[in-house]
Amino acid sequence: MALPKGRSAFLWGPRKTGKTTFLEQLFPGALRYNLLETDTFFRLSKEPHKLREELLSPARRNPPGPIIVDEVQKVPALLDEVHLLIESKKLGFVLCGSSARKLKRAGANMLGGRAWRFEMYPFTFHELGKRFDLLQALNRGLLPPHYFDEDYPRTIKAYVGDYLKEEILQEGVLRNLPAFARFLDAVPYSNGEMVNYANIGRECFVDAKTVAGYFQILVDTLLGRFLEPFRKRKKRQNITATPKFYLFDVGVAAGLAKRVIQTNRGAEFGKAFEHLIFMELCAYRSYFEKDFDMSYWRTKDGHEVDFVLNGGEVAIEVKGSESVSPVDLTGLAAFKEEFPPRRSLVVSQDPAPRLLASGIEVLPWRKFLTDLWDGVIV
Fold first, then answer.
1. Could you count the other beta carbons within 10 Å of the beta carbon of residue 355?
2. What's the pLDDT score for residue 239?
3. Contacts of 231 (CB under 8 A, 6+ apart)
């Protein structure tokens, strides 16, 4: 996160992704306002102008680095003061929080392009390096406190129970909290699948429109994201209207589903493995500010490709198997025939890279993730 002097930015990300620690390391000695501190919250929520008065006092002139306001969504009125200080005094701010939804719903001043936008993800393969363990990542997830916690089941359970539901409740948009709790119980079983609002609604005893609203809350609070279908059409009849949905962390998905993966094989392993690869692609695209689009491809006769990047330039199929077989290639082969990509890849547990006669590349997952973060894939 390179931030020139005097420039301001929003830094968004779910709780426990490490935003505060990151900013402490990046801007040591910077002046901080943490709105999780009750005294700071009550002082500034009651009288937002005190932020301006304190920053303009002679004792605080020329603070080192930007001024950091943590959990800024808790006091939306502060953004008017920040706007004024950026314009009149050329001060720089980093405005950090877990969701912009509350600010937007309150009609808060989003600074009209005066602040860059960054997003913090859980740990990545690139960040962990030699400390990355695949089964550990799939079970514990990659939120920093969870990945290194031997008692991770309790930690994830507390995160799901105390944070996810309360975070949504604080948005102030739910009239039926029990229905939303049932929705959260249903979501992990749809994770990585095409979303069927009607089916989930029947499980939660609400209508499909309400379920669509619940999913949008998760997206707006950065707790999940949609993967839209590839819409370029040629010969085959594509299913183009239904997105897939992925939660923001594979460990949180495991915790919600009460799932423990004991070995690196089987359907549950394959599903979580695909989820992990998706989140690595998202983090890489965000951190390196790449502008490629990402989608999936599926036809009515069952051909599917997990991830299609940059308008069809790269097609990726994720398989949990240790040896890719011909049946694993049918989706990629069909896509390759219809929309010839620059690269067609199978990410798997194969021990070594292979180039098949069809032109499809088989990459071991470590090789794929290394190449991804080195900028070789896209």
1. 10
2. 61
3. 238, 240, 295
